[in-house]
Write a structure and sequence with these properties.
The chain is α+β, with helices and mostly antiparallel strands. 31% of the residues lie in helices and 28% in strands. Strand 7 and strand 8 form a beta hairpin. The protein is globular.
């Protein structure tokens, strides 16, 4: 058992220098699969901790059909665990890689739909003055239904209130 006994670990999905991503099964609703992004806190610099806290704040504030849903977090003295929606189809990067390996083409209708879904998610986050800053096929996921989910807001940035686009240019000296 893990995360206060609420979840059972199914398998590790990814592992990096500071974080690991594990597939978890809820004990409350045994059919419910979620992802636990577990971030080690020991040895983090102030800037890195600030990025993690930004990700939590941004994820908690975003509610959109094509953005990975944030459920809750668990914090202990060694790590922060973000409980997120599971995207069963993996990343778009992996899908493209598999299509090349297997020599099959993605359908134009699927790609068009995915681009529309991604544009909708980006329009939503930009409307909330959030910049993703790490938009790549590794951070775009595919859910159970084959729809796109934008995720991994770790490098996102919440913009300060700016009245108009021209204010951005006048403040930057451009």
């Amino acid at each position: 058992a893990d995360l206060e006994g609420r979840y059972d670990r199914v398998e590790e999905l990814d592992h990096g220098a500071f974080a690991s991503v594990a597939l978890m099964r809820s004990r409350e609703t045994t059919a419910k699969l979620v992802v636990a992004k577990q971030i080690g806190l020991s040895g983090l610099k102030r800037k890195e901790l600030k990025q993690i806290l930004t990700e939590v704040q941004v994820l908690a504030s975003l509610k959109h059909a094509h953005i990975v849903q944030f459920y809750h977090y668990h914090w202990d003295c060694t790590r922060l665990s973000l409980i997120l929606e599971y995207a069963a189809g993996g990343t778009v990067a992996r899908l493209v890689q598999r299509s090349v390996q297997l020599e099959w083409n993605l359908s134009i209708s699927d790609v068009t739909l995915w681009l529309s879904q991604l544009a909708s998610a980006l329009h939503y986050v930009h409307g909330r003055r959030v910049l993703h800053r790490d938009l790549s096929s590794e951070n775009v996921f595919i859910d159970y239904n084959g729809d796109i989910l934008l995720g991994d807001f770790g490098l996102s940035h919440q913009l300060a209130a700016v009245r108009s686009t021209s204010d951005l240019f006048s403040r930057s000296g451009g």
